[in-house]
Amino acid sequence: MAGFSLQLTDEQIQLRDWVHGFARDVMRPAAAEWDEREETPWPIIQEAAKIGLYGFDILANAHADETGLSLCLINEELFWGDAGLAMAIMGTSLAVAAIFGSGTPEQLFEWVPQCFGDATDPKVAAFCSTEPAAGSDVASMRTRAVYDEATDTWVLNGQKAFATNGGIANVHVVTASVDPELGARGQAAFVIPPGTPGLVGGKKYRKLGLRASHTADVYLDDVKVPGSCLLGGRERLLERLDRARRGERTGQQASMRTFELTRPGVGAQALGIGRAAYEYALDYARERVQFGRPIIDNQAVAFALADMRMELDAARLLVWRAAWMGRTGQPFTAGEGSMSKLKAGEVAVAVTEKAVQILGGAGYVRDHPVERWYRDAKIYTIFEGTSEIQRLVVARAISGRHIT
Ligand SMILES: Cc1cc2nc3c(=O)[nH]c(=O)nc-3n(C[C@H](O)[C@H](O)[C@H](O)COP(=O)(O)OP(=O)(O)OC[C@H]3O[C@@H](n4cnc5c(N)ncnc54)[C@H](O)[C@@H]3O)c2cc1C
């Protein structure tokens, strides 16, 4: 048995091709319209739910893949179809990942199905961590959660910003400080059940890209949830806070690992956008004639395409490596998860920019999708940790020093 292979299995190829078919036949034709409308594309989410492409089962099946590649394949194909529509489909998985990462098996069983709804009536979920004054600096979070022992109730107050699906979600997962003196180590995550009074959606942002995905502020005004909504439970929280107060290592390391685990999937999304732009530019360069020959016959254009392909393939190798490392339990000694998202995000920005250049004026107008892909790609150097924050993670990991 060979110890190393980059050959996808038959199941992986089948999965990839199935998602690709949906991306090509359902998402691509609808993409420009939803980008213009800047609304949540419920009919597309419903279509995805109907065929089993949106829901708990597909994520659970992908997770069962022992190589870790299935989720990367799904993400790359969906985002090849269209990033805004794909984020409307995959945004829920952020909240699900938080429940997976911190919740008990009972909480997983109770809340994850409610994140998705069912095939006939799909719902979305939101993960709300960012605040107006706490983006990269997560430790400065001001949202507070206070426990009332008499009623076994948590009361949350604060404001969240930039939440994907914020205010329109069935289930919101909200992070809050339970002990501000402990900074990031004094934070916890809570499920806010559907219809809980006090949680309201605020301003919806008008964005450069990903316009079919809803991004909004969320206000928490005396939001009361039962003790069972604290992810991981109170006992585990108290132990963690105790360790933090004694200055011992805490679950912070665990949450860093969770980020390292989810970042390859985000990198695969960026790859999908980049690959779409590369393929489109390659076709265009073969057909567009100037000076009596296809523009691809100029080295300047052909070399640009060669570089685009090489960078995408290099990024994919980093993404697949990190996904495999995460799934097989290898330690991320050099921040390999962050590295993969950093590389793929920056490649997506560079490749979509090059694609616009190769199309010339046609690349700048909405008659061709590269204009939209160029706008969509930029988010991948910003969210889920900016490129600078990814570099911090890698730099700290390789140096063992607290680089600031
Ligand atoms: C479309 C969209 C969807 C989003 N979805 C979600 C979501 O679902 N849930 C959620 O919680 N959040 C979400 N976010 C928020 C996103 O994660 C944050 O925008 C991101 O983490 C950056 O935070 P910030 O915008 O406050 O930037 P800031 O932290 O203010 O950073 C501004 C600049 O300063 C740099 N910088 C900051 N600190 C350092 C440092 N120490 N060293 C070097 N450079 C530094 C940054 O890299 C960046 O270039 C979303 C954002 C967008 C735009």
How many β-strands, per DSSP? 11
Strand content: 5-15%
Major sheet: 4 strands, antiparallel
CATH top level label of the largest domain: Mainly Alpha
Q: Could you please describe the fold and organization of this structure?
A:
This protein has 404 residues and is α+β, with helices and mostly antiparallel strands. It folds into 3 domains: 10-122, Acyl-CoA dehydrogenase/oxidase, N-terminal domain (Butyryl-Coa Dehydrogenase, subunit A, domain 1); 125-245, Butyryl-CoA Dehydrogenase, subunit A, domain 2 (Beta Barrel), CATH 2.40.110.10; 252-399, Butyryl-CoA Dehydrogenase, subunit A, domain 3 (Up-down Bundle). Helix content is 53%, strand content 15%. It is built from 14 helices and 11 strands. A hairpin with a 4-residue loop joins strand 4 and strand 5 (153-164). Helix 1 (10-37) runs parallel beside helix 4 (70-81) and helix 6 (92-102) runs antiparallel to helix 7. The structure holds flavin-adenine dinucleotide (FAD). Flavin-adenine dinucleotide binds at residues 94, 127-130, 135-136, 162-164, 207, 210, 215, 379, 382-383, 386, 388-389, 392.
